[in-house]
Amino acid sequence: MSEPIRLALVGMGKIAHDQHVPAITGNGDITLAATVSRNGEGVDGVPHFRELADLIASGIAIDAVSLCTPPQVRRTIAAQAIAQGWHVFLEKPPGATLAEVAHLQTAADSANISLFASWHSRYAPGVEPARAFLAHADIRKVTVTWREDIRVWHPGQAWILEAGGFGVFDPGINALSIVTRILPRPFFIADAELDFPANCDAPIAARITFADDHGVAIAADFDFRQEGPQSWDIAVDTAEGTLTLHDGGARLVMPDGTEPSHEDALHGEYAGLYARFAEIVRAGQSDVDIAPLRHVADAFLRGRRITVEPFVE
Ligand code: NAP
After folding, report:
1. How far apart are CA 216 and CA 203, in angstroms?
2. Contacts of 222 (CB under 8 A, 6+ apart)
3. Which of 45, 55, 78, 267 is the most buried (most CB within 10 A)?
């Protein structure tokens, strides 16, 4: 058995504490060797640094980093890590632009290190069984409803509604990461409307229609203003009935009404991500699929911009 991968966590905010720390602690192949955050709390007993440069200067032995910062600053930190020869796990979205992710991939290949563009929703338990069923299904229509309350789920995260923060595509890209995984054919944006609050540089809602070459329509409704019941659902109408993924992929209902999986949202997703990261590091590979990010970029390229009322948290 090889030595555990010595990993530093960077950007000790919500997702780092809620999901990364427990997933790393639960993975015997990875050890948390350091944390880096300008203001965030570290972890008891683990060396903590304010900047990545301070970690580098400390000389602590590190093999890999996980970047849990907002996307706007991810490329610069990833480039510093790659220059150290460290493997890099990128939280979703893997960057703020397509060009910077392509560049990180080239830099990682040249440095012979592993780059992981993680998509946690793809590790929800309903996703792979849905993909297996849909590989041979006669698909008629796909409806994606991703409506959540930004005030409940992202309090104090001003970066989300700033330029490069993705706005409603911060959660919406999770839906796209699932849809690009479970549908058997590529699809393309036909039409998009993006609602920008008058005081923000990122959209608070978006309605997108995609189509594939077989004429299947995929309608996505993303909204950050949802109060009351929240929705993270994907319904796929097929000749045999409707397959539905609820709760971000945690619960799958097959067309015949059976439920092969039903777990709490996010449960197990980060354990799956870290198992995959350890696997690609050991195998000397990278795993970078930009399909979800490409659809978001296309929505910005192709969509109509609508100005809506200002957003005040
Ligand atoms: P967050 O709570 O705001 O944490 C991000 C951390 O990054 C901050 O604590 C901050 O720590 C650090 N940071 C570094 N540079 C920053 C900058 N220029 N502006 C703001 N913060 C900066 O955000 P989060 O919810 O953990 O999300 C982080 C990433 O994980 C996002 O890409 C998000 O899409 C993804 N994610 C989030 C969730 C979720 O449920 N929240 C789920 C899955 C994935 P310091 O100020 O201490 O440096």
Report:
1. 26
2. 144, 146, 147, 168, 169, 171, 172, 175, 205, 206, 207, 208
3. 78
> Tell me, which fold does domain 124-264+297-308 have in CATH?
Dihydrodipicolinate Reductase; domain 2 (3.30.360)
Residue 14 bears catalytic tag: no
User: What are the start and end residues of each CATH 3.30.360.10 domain in the chain?
Assistant: 124-264+297-308
| Amino acid, single-letter form, for residue 134 | L
Ligand 1 neighbour 295 (Cβ under 6 A) = no
Angle between helical axes of 127-134 and 169-182 (0-180°, round to 10):
40
Amino acid identity for residue 303 in this structure: G
Q: Where in the chain is the domain with CATH 3.40.50.720?
A: 5-117
3-class DSSP assignment, residue 50: coil
Q: Tell me the pLDDT band of 268, cut-offs 50, 70 and 90.
A: confident
Name residues whose C-beta falls within 8 Å of residue 91's C-beta, 6 or more positions apart in sequence. 11, 15, 66, 67, 68, 69, 74, 118
pTM recorded for the entire structure? 0.97
Ligand 1 atom nearest to CA at 171: 34
pLDDT tens-digit readout, 76-98: 999 999 999 999 999 999 999 99
For the domain spanning 5-117, the CATH number is 3.40.50.720
